[in-house]
Amino acid sequence: MNEQRVNQAVEAICNTGCNSVNAVIHTLESGHSVKGIEDFSQTETMILINELRSIMAVYECRKG
User: Fold this and answer.
1) How many structural domains does the chain have?
2) I want to staple 44 with a disulfide (CB 3.0 to 4.6 A). Which of 35, 40, 55, 56 is the partner?
3) Taking the model in full, what pTM does it have?
4) Strands (E), the chain
5) Which domain range does residue 20 map to?
């Protein structure tokens, strides 16, 4: 597992905006690939999804 690679992906995805982040989460949860992380291991993908969910949870709390 390459933590730096996962962190870079999180940063890049988050820079695309909330709607895109939510779309990436949905796509990955559906078992589909996302451009730029096609070669991630299953573990890296799960960590990425969890990181993105955590980040988006903060934004959802701010909206509420």
Assistant:
1) 1
2) 40
3) 0.88
4) none
5) 3-63
